[in-house]
Every structure is written in C-alpha cells, then in structure tokens.
C-alpha cells in the first residue's frame, strides 16, 4: 500500500474517476497545464487531454454555472474553486441552482457536481486565503458538505462525492495538504510543517458520506471536530492526559447524529472544535444536536473552541488558529465542572 499525502490522495482520486468514467471532467483556474496552485491536478491534463481537464476563466460564478449545465446534461463535473475564500461569487449558482435542480425539476434533472476547494489557515495566507466558510453551505438544503482530515479519507470521500448524484462541496484543509499535521505546534516550524504521509490504497474505494469515524477512543469527554481540528484535538488530548474521545465528523451534511449521540452518551461531556469564526459557526448546530439528543446524559455544559469573530489575521495567525492549548483548556473546564 502506497504512502501518500493529501494532495497525492486527491490527485489519485481524480485520476481513478477520470479513468473510470468518461463523463467526469475536471476544470477551474490553473488546474490544466499548471496542475493547480497546490498541484492537486498535476499531470492529469497530459494524461486525459484538454477536453477532460481544462482551465477556466477567473470567474467563480461562471465556473459553477457551467458545471450546473454540464451536470444537468449527463456529465459529472469536478470544478475547483482555487481558494474557499473565492467561493462567494458562485454562491447563488450553488444555492439557487445546483442545490435545487433535482427538487425544482421533480427529479428530471440533477446536479452531480463535486466542488473542490482548499480551506482554512495555517499557511500564512492572510485574510483572503485562510477562511473556513463551511457553515454557509450547511444551511442550504440539497447540498452535501464534506471535509476530510487525512489522505485515506480524502481519496475515499472524494470518489464517493464524484459518484454521488447530488452536489457536494468538498473542502480540503490546506494545512494538511503536504502531510498529516501532528497538531502539537502552536506555531509551525515551516509554513507547511509537513509530516509523514498516510497509507492510501491504490485504485477505487469509497468512504461513505454521512458517516463519522472515531479518531481516538476515550471515556471521559467527547470532542467533535473535522478537518485540521481533528489533529489539534488529538494533540490536546495527549498533552492534557485527559481520556478524550475524538470524533472526526468527516461529513457535515449529511451529519452522523447517531455517532455523536453514542459518543456523548458514553462520556457525558462534550467539546466542539472548529477553525471558522465563532458566531454562526457549525459548532452551534452541533451543540444543538447534542442538547436535543443527549441532554440528560450531560454532566457539564458543552464547550466550544473556534476562531475569533474577526477577519483572519496574517500577523497573528497562530493566535487566531485554535491550537491544542485552547482545546486543552476547554477539556479541563468540562472535566472540572
């Protein structure tokens, strides 16, 4: 079994699907000849040709609008939005067209679109290259929202997303691109702070959408996290010595509420962690789910650790970025309640 980082796993998934289905097309800004700004599509245009892997104008609205039309007429487009920060010009096409096409046409048309986009901070990208806008899409009926935390899941979830008949927003944490982040660094030694890659099977396999995984088993407290924050939560559990169970959500829509309920009922305590800003963040929804399904099992108030309600700062990035110190403090707080 090959060892791959997340970029290699994503490229492998695209390669598998381009080879398996002639209806799959990959396009976006600089994804063709250049291979993408993070090299996720490197070599794919040369292998599959300019009609299958191609560059698009700098128009996110146009990219997604074209993808909706492609999907309605039988293709399985995989458009890339170069940074998640740039996805807002395409929001109307995503929320008003892609997400509603199946419902509006009574199933006559659908939009099997997988929108890939790098998200999050940790690479000194500043306020316009570091945002985590996943909560904006979890409020839109008809979408699926995915964010992997490791190369194995990234490949399996991406293949499952491309094969799905509904539109999927596939967020890729940039902090994890070049290797699994060990989570311990409050500030990185290098911008990427790369670590050894993970084992990723060759060929086709899927990780089901809507199913969480247990990244660390524990009995004392449940930590709900996704993307980069899974690794931060693991580091916090190790540094504090608290027997925390870390649940990697993987999919935000559909959400594995059964897994959340089972874990919180077992531990009786819960901490929710995400990198996005606090107000209106997905943590609020997760806390509501826990309250609705586990209220009488809770032994302490739920804690949440998030980014601040400010634009993502460049100079103070690693004060904004929720690190193991802040997560560890939340773990101690719920254990002492």
Automatic annotation (TrEMBL):
It comes from the Bacteria. Pfam families: Transket_pyr, Transketolase_C. Keywords: Oxidoreductase, Thiamine pyrophosphate. Its cofactor is thiamine diphosphate. GO terms for molecular function: oxidoreductase activity. Residues 4-179 form the Transketolase-like pyrimidine-binding domain. The branched-chain alpha-keto dehydrogenase complex catalyzes the overall conversion of alpha-keto acids to acyl-CoA and CO(2). It contains multiple copies of three enzymatic components: branched-chain alpha-keto acid decarboxylase (E1), lipoamide acyltransferase (E2) and lipoamide dehydrogenase (E3). This is 2-oxoisovalerate dehydrogenase subunit beta.
């Amino acid at each position: 079994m090959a060892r791959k980082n997340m970029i290699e796993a994503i490229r492998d998934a695209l390669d598998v699907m381009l080879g398996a289905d002639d209806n799959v097309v990959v396009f976006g800004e600089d994804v063709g000849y250049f291979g993408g700004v993070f090299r996720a599509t490197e070599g794919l245009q040369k292998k599959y040709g300019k009609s299958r892997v191609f560059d698009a104008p700098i128009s996110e609205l146009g990219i997604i609008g074209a993808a909706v039309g492609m999907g309605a007429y039988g293709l399985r487009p995989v458009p890339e939005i170069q940074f998640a920060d740039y996805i807002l010009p395409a929001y109307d096409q995503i929320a008003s067209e892609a997400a509603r096409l199946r419902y509006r046409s009574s199933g006559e048309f659908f939009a099997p679109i997988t929108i890939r986009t790098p998200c999050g901070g940790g690479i000194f990208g500043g306020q316009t290259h570091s945002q985590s806008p996943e909560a904006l899409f979890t409020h839109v009926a008809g979408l699926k929202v995915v964010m992997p935390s490791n190369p194995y899941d990234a490949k399996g979830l991406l293949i499952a997303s491309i094969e799905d008949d509904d539109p999927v927003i596939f967020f890729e944490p940039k902090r994890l691109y070049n290797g699994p982040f060990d989570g311990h660094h409050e500030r990185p030694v290098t911008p990427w702070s790369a670590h050894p890659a993970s084992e990723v099977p060759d060929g086709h396999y899927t990780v089901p959408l809507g199913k969480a995984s247990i990244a660390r088993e524990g009995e004392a407290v449940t930590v709900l996290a996704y993307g980069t924050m899974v690794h931060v939560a693991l580091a916090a559990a190790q540094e504090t010595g608290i027997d925390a169970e870390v649940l990697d959500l993987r999919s935000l829509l559909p959400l594995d509420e059964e897994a959340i309920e089972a874990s919180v009922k077992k531990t009786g305590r819960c901490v929710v962690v995400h990198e996005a800003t606090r107000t209106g963040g997905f943590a609020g929804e997760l806390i509501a789910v826990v309250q609705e399904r586990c209220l009488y099992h809770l032994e302490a108030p739920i804690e949440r650790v998030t980014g601040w309600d400010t634009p993502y700062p460049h100079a103070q990035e690693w004060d904004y970025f929720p690190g193991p110190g802040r997560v560890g403090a939340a773990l101690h707080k719920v254990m002492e309640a």
